[in-house]
UniProtKB/TrEMBL annotation:
The lineage of its organism: Eukaryota, Metazoa, Spiralia, Lophotrochozoa, Mollusca. This is Uncharacterized protein. It comes from the Eukaryota.
Length: 235
């Protein structure tokens, strides 16, 4: 009922505070979450009646779209700690990799001049540096109060990025692939190259930082008018 409670809250707020005018909502406005106790008898009766009707609805049981054998196979694969399942690079092929080989390839790529091993995570220091930059931007009037509040409240100080590999099976010759399909020893001995991916989706300030960047670039693109040579067309 969480969705219905949120709907009821918005309905009450709309009745109490909407004056009929259309306001341009700030892209980084954070909802206050204010919950009015009530609005008017008509709306309260509607909310109550709707909740009663929803409680009377029969919810159908979830049905599987795969067989019991397929479900059991998926669960067994998920529990197998000796394999890694990844989507192949450049296509949608699903690859089941030997975990030891996968780790060997990852360590091989990490042990070079492009990466440096650290003793402990410095996520907290990165977050503090980011907040210092955000505060300076706010003090210098580059960002407004709402944007500053959004960035400040969404800084993540506990999570780091995730490194993983996408197997580049297209780099292997057809002869090697055929041999790996037939021979288990070949599957263990041939190291499949991987494309390194560093996912920052849950890392420090990624979400608020990317959202503010995209919004700023969009506003600049809308405000900028570029005339194409030899025509009156703008882009």
């Amino acid at each position: 009922m969480e969705d219905f409670d949120e709907f009821s809250r918005k309905l009450r707020c709309r009745y109490l505070y909407n004056d009929g005018r259309i306001y341009k909502r700030h892209p980084f406005y954070i909802n206050s979450g204010y919950k009015p106790l009530d609005s008017c008898p008509a709306i309260e009766n509607y909310i109550f009646s709707t909740k009663i009707e929803l409680s009377r609805m029969k919810i159908n049981k979830h049905t599987r779209n795969i067989s019991a054998e397929e479900l059991s196979a998926i669960r067994n694969l998920k529990k197998n700690n000796n394999i890694i399942i990844r989507k192949a690079d450049k296509n949608s092929t699903l690859c089941i990799l030997d975990k030891d080989n996968y780790l060997r390839e990852g360590l091989r790529q990490l042990h070079n001049i492009h990466y440096e091993e650290i003793v402990e995570s410095n996520v907290k220091e990165v977050a503090e540096t980011a907040f210092s930059i955000i505060r300076d931007l706010h003090n210098d009037n580059y960002i407004d109060n709402i944007t500053f509040k959004y960035l400040k409240e969404n800084i993540n100080t506990t999570k780091v990025g995730k490194f993983y590999l996408l197997p580049k099976i297209h780099k292997l010759s057809q002869n090697i692939l055929s041999e790996m399909e037939r021979n288990e020893t070949a599957r263990r001995e041939n190291l499949i190259p991987g494309r390194p991916i560093v996912s920052l989706c849950v890392s420090t300030i990624f979400l608020p930082g990317s959202k503010t960047r995209d919004s700023t670039l969009y506003q600049l693109s809308v405000q900028s008018t570029i005339f194409l040579p030899g025509s009156k067309t703008t882009r």
